Structure formats: C-alpha cells, structure tokens
Amino acid sequence: MATRTDAPTRREQILREAARLFAERGFHGVGVDEIGAAVGISGPGLYRHFAGKDAMLAELLVGISEQLLTGGKRRVAESGGDPGALLDSLIEGHIDFALDDRPLITLHDRELDRLRDSDRKLVRQLQRQYVELWVAVVREIHPALAEPSARSAVHSVFGLLNSTPHLGRPGALPGRAGTAELLHRMARGAFAAAGADGVGGAIGTRGADGAAGTSDAAGVAGADGAAGPVRA
Fold first, then answer.
1. At a CB cut-off of 8 Å and minimum separation 6, what does 188 contact?
2. What's the pLDDT at 208?
3. Distances in Å between the alpha carbon of 105 and those of 36, 118, 156, 158, 167?
4. Interstrand relation of 204-206 and 212-214 (parallel, antiparallel or unpaired)
5. What does pLDDT average to in each consecutive run of 10 residues of the chain (232 residues)?
6. Cα(17)–Cα(23) distance, integer angstroms
7. pTM of the entire predicted model
8. Which DSSP symbol is given to 7?
9. Radius of gyration, alpha carbons of the chain
10. Count of CB atoms within 10 A of residue 73's CB?
C-alpha cells in the first residue's frame, strides 16, 4: 500500500492490479486471466496466492481498513500528547492514502456489499475505531464541540479527502504536493469551522430541497451505523 517503501511482493502486486482493474471496470467486468496478465503470470497461477476474486476483494477492503487504523494508532502513540500535531499527522496520513490508493476509494464505494457478512462487519468495526481516533483528538482541540457534531465533522472531512478519484484529469491538478497541501488546509479549516462556536447539534449537508442531513461522507453507513474511511 501507500506506506510501503520496499519492493512489493507478488501477492501485493496482484492486489494492486486487481484494485486498479476492479475500480476501472467493476468487479464482474474483470476476469482472473486479466489480473494474471497484468502481473505477468497465468490466470490459474493466481490461485497459488488467492482462492479467487472474492478473496482478493476481501483482502483489499479489510486490508486498507486495518492499515488506516494501525497507522492512526501509531500516530497517536508518536504524538507526544500534542493534539494539534496529532490532528495534522492524522490528516497527513489520510491524505497519503487518498492520493496514493485512489482505486481503493472507488472499490469501497462500489463493491463493499459484495463482501461476505463477516468480512463486511469486520470492515465496519475497523472503520468505527478509526473514526473514533479522530473524534477524540477533534474534541480535545475543540472541547465545546459535542460528540455527535465532532463525529459528523470527521465524516465530512473524510468525504473531502476521499474526493480524490473525482478531482478531474491528473494534468488539471496542482501536482501531488500542491494537492496534499490544499487538502490539508481545507481539512483543518473544516474542523476549525465546526468548533468555532461549539454547536451541539449534528453538522450536516443540505440537499436540493434545503433539508439538512447528517454527513456520512466517510462511507455508506450500514445497519450498525459504521462509516467507511474510503467513501467519497
């Protein structure tokens, strides 16, 4: 994934190409042979690494949820108790994901419901824990912000950061560094706006009819109320 600096293993190569192809053409629009060809092995050769496409999809979506949570916990441990520095670090880590693993954002949007129930529930559990890391630090910086509002603000910021697959042609963007800086400023600004007056109600977005709705920008909320980190 985005945080690796060493050469990817063959298994990681397969997952990266599977994510790209699934995002471009849909889960059912891609065959095992095509994934194999993308990494230079035969389609049947993939079965030495994965039981099938369903197993690849599960590992991709569970894996990125685990990675985000693990990275978030590491940043908390390394923060030295400075909530402002921690929030900046969390934002930076999520921006790295949003810019470097864009296919996974699209994949989560389209294909999460294809996971078997146990894997989907695990994704939701991991996502809830990741959200709560952010809620805790946002409320430490803005103590007057009620917990529901802080959680809605976090979801909204995830929606902003996870908009990267929809930002247009690569040449139309200011470059990776410029895009990362812009997203960081906007995320910080959103949290500052949310905490400006310590509102206690839920922060929402307005639909075409003008009605305010609770933002679930981080992911599709399931029946258990969990929101995913890779939903635009």
1. 87, 88, 91
2. 32
3. 22, 20, 15, 11, 13
4. antiparallel
5. 62 94 94 92 86 95 97 96 96 96 93 95 97 97 95 96 81 82 96 76 35 34 39 39
6. 10
7. 0.80
8. P
9. 18
10. 13
